[in-house]
């Protein structure tokens, strides 16, 4: 539906409307989904994941972390390798990292990215996107050497990307970030 798509775009920095308005809509949809389907229904879980992504986009990492931790059990009920469970684990690591617990967050992020690659395959866009996301976090946190090492490893593993792909765009942004 529209809400998960809006959250997915916010996850890559594209907002369709002001963030407070998007969050209000997402929270209202979450309330509606819980009321209509119950808290364990996939629609409710997707709605909660959308709220988490929008909170992260707005820098509300503490709130997003609390929601993601509560969502993990419900999303894993769909199966430990379910895309929502994998995304939730990555969100938890991301929030921990952004809250300043960099080393703990990095351990969680690496575990989540590794599990995503094992379950979905290393060529899956989520697997590669998460690994690129970690490099971006490292670069943004002043760990440029570690970011460059990981970027080099990604380039060696994946070779080149289709120029117009989402991953190629992420790759270009990453190269610009590391060149600063």
Content-based structural category: mainly alpha
Count of DSSP helices? 9
Query: Termini, distance in Å?
Result: 38 Å
The secondary-structure element order is: HHHHHHHHH
Rounded to an integer, what's the Rg over CA atoms? Answer: 16 Å
Quick one: biggest sheet? none
Number of strands: 0
Morphology call:
globular
Taken as a percent bin, the fraction of beta residues is: under 5%
Helical content, roughly? over 70%
Query: On the 0-100 scale, what is the average pLDDT?
Result: 86
| Poorly predicted parts | none
How would you describe this protein?
- There is one protein chain.
- By secondary structure, this protein is mostly helical.
- The chain is 79% helix and 0% strand.
- The protein has 9 helices and no strands.
- It has helices at residues 2-11, 19-37, 42-57, 61-77, 83-98, 102-120, 125-140, 144-158, 166-179.
- Helix 3 packs parallel to helix 5 (83-98), helix 5 packs antiparallel against helix 6 and helix 7 (125-140) runs antiparallel to helix 8.
């Amino acid at each position: 539906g529209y809400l998960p798509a809006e959250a997915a775009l916010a996850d890559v920095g594209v907002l369709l409307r002001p963030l407070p308005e998007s969050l209000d809509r997402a929270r209202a949809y979450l309330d509606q989904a819980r009321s209509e389907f119950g808290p364990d229904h996939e629609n409710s879980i997707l709605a909660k994941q959308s709220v988490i992504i929008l909170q992260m986009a707005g820098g509300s990492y503490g709130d997003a972390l609390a929601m993601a931790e509560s969502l993990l059990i419900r999303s894993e009920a769909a199966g430990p390798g379910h895309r929502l469970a994998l995304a939730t684990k990555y969100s938890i690591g991301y929030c921990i990292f952004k809250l300043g617990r960099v080393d703990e967050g990095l351990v969680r992020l690496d575990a989540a990215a590794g599990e995503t690659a094992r379950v979905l395959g290393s060529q899956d866009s989520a697997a590669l996107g998460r690994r690129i996301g970690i490099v971006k976090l490292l670069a943004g946190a002043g760990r440029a050497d570690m970011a460059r090492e990981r970027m080099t490893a990604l380039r060696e593993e994946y070779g080149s990307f289709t120029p117009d792909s989402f991953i190629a765009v992420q790759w270009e942004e990453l190269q610009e970030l590391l060149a600063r």
